[in-house]
Specification:
The chain has 20 helices and six strands. By secondary structure, the chain is mostly helical.
């Protein structure tokens, strides 16, 4: 851990000092800083720091790209006095107030909010999807009968993450909208209450104070829960303003629940269900007869989408798809093609170069890309030499087109080589074969095309020493 101390110190200096940083969080490869004065940061200086792969300013954050060891660097940044944004997420501080006043577009706010609520659910969906894969394999190879007790237990374990997705979303949305988590869970839990579900299933009319409640089954839904907690954030603040100080502990939670839950059942839930059906219709349209064009375009454009950070905006689409059907054949399939193509192109650079440090950097970045982390490959190799990026985009587009034509489907949320475990499902061996062919095509085409396009002399000039140090640590 201590080897990243100097790197963290230099990054903080490049940001204008710890006093210029409201808070910091991180994702798989990037440190994400909320700055008080973005103009005080020296972006050119940050780019030259040993261990920094790239810098990506956005309207809401300054993102410093590190690589797969970002967690260790983040710990050192926090140790040197920068506020941990995750730990402070639930606190109303002056820093967060300052940050909230920054001018950002409505689109950026919406994307940031939805991503913050949905992204933490992906590990649960992955785990549940893997259980489903195991069940599919067990029946395919006659490991167990689908009538057996063991199978049935595993089946409802695998269904749990999808059925209770509204509850999962309530937890993360409560953190994002800064509302009481326990009340948020109870409000959304009303959607899933057995008595309500049975009432809906019976077909009998439901009403509250004479107002009709639409009979909707909300299990595995996404949008109704998200809209409910968003509305609750306003209701909770409004209740807090009107209740006497001495009675807040009693009245605040009671009134919030009493107002939000009926409103959710009468208005918000049905509207959210309607929006969810609309989103499902759009997804089906994109995955329809011309779906192969969408997969190809997304796969080819994915590196540029990653550069802007807008790949996070795609998360709600594939999460909604898994919520509705338990499968996904657009966003994640395109990401698998793009990531493996980046890996193939970068490995080709490692194979072709005669410089030891280029080989080391490219090999490490190539393996990282194949495992789903493309920033080291993208910023350290393919963008630098350009031809490998062209090769990766062309290859991803071709393999994406093939995947779309073959209707390749994923049963597990994965965007890397591990997606090979997610092709097993209801579509049988044909989907597995097509999925593997898609992955091999992505890597091999990109590798070969890079060897053809990239001139030897262009990769003999080694990357800067800072890039070498920053990327070699991934190996």
């Amino acid at each position: 851990m201590r080897k990243y101390q100097q790197l963290a110190k230099e990054i903080i200096q490049g940001l204008g000092g710890a006093e210029n940083v409201n808070s910091a969080v991180h994702c798989a490869t990037r440190l994400r800083f909320d700055l008080k004065n973005p103009e005080a940061a020296n972006i050119d200086s940050l780019k030259e720091i040993d261990g920094v792969v790239g810098v990506n300013p956005t309207p809401t954050q300054l993102q410093v790209i590190i690589g797969s060891h970002v967690g260790e660097v983040f710990e050192e940044v926090i140790q040197q006095g920068v506020t941990n944004g995750d730990a402070e997420a639930g606190k109303q501080s002056v820093a967060s107030t300052t940050s909230a006043k920054k001018e950002t577009s409505i689109l950026n706010k919406v994307v940031d909010t939805i991503t913050g609520c949905m992204t933490p659910m992906i590990p649960a969906l992955t785990a549940a999807g893997m259980i489903k894969v195991i069940l599919s394999l067990s029946t395919t190879f006659n490991w167990m009968s689908n009538e057996s007790s063991t199978y049935r237990v595993l089946d409802f374990i695998g269904d749990g993450a999808f059925y209770f997705m509204p509850i999962l979303l309530a937890v993360f949305a409560a953190n994002k909208f800064k509302v009481n988590t326990s009340i948020a869970i109870i409000v959304v839990g009303v959607f899933l209450h057995p008595n309500f579900s049975q009432w809906v299933a019976s077909g009998d009319p439901i009403s509250f104070l004479g107002m009709p409640i639409q009979g909707v089954i909300y299990a595995a839904s996404v949008i109704p829960a998200l809209l409910t907690i968003w509305a609750m954030s306003y209701i909770e603040r409004g209740v807090d303003k009107i209740t006497p100080q001495s009675l807040k502990i009693l009245l605040n939670p009671t009134l919030t629940l009493l107002i939000t839950a009926p409103l959710a059942l009468i208005v918000i839930g049905p509207l959210g269900n309607f929006a969810g059906q609309g989103l499902a219709w759009v997804i089906n349209l994109m995955e329809g007869q011309l779906g192969f064009i969408m997969v190809a375009l997304l796969a080819a454009a994915m590196p540029f989408i990653v550069m802007t950070g807008m790949h996070h905006a795609l998360t709600p689409i594939f999460v909604a798809s898994f919520a509705a059907t338990g499968t996904e054949s657009l966003i994640l399939v395109a990401q698998v093609c793009a990531n493996l193509a980046q890996g193939g192109a970068t490995l080709a650079v490692a194979f072709k170069s005669k410089q030891k440090n280029v080989k080391s950097i490219a090999a490490a970045a190539g393996v990282s890309a194949i495992m789903g982390i493309t920033e080291p490959a993208l910023y350290g190799i393919t963008m630098k030499y350009k031809k490998p990026l062209v090769a990766a985009c062309i290859s991803a587009g071709i393999s994406g087109c093939f995947a779309g034509l073959m209707h390749v489907t994923l049963y597990v949320p994965q965007n890397s080589l591990m997606a090979i475990l997610g092709f097993s499902g209801d579509k049988g061996t044909s989907n597995i074969i097509a999925g593997i062919a898609m992955m091999v095509m992505s890597v091999v085409l990109s590798f070969v095309l890079t060897l053809v396009l990239q001139k030897d002399e262009k990769i003999e000039a080694a990357p800067t020493e800072k890039s070498a140090k920053g990327l070699a640590v991934n190996s």
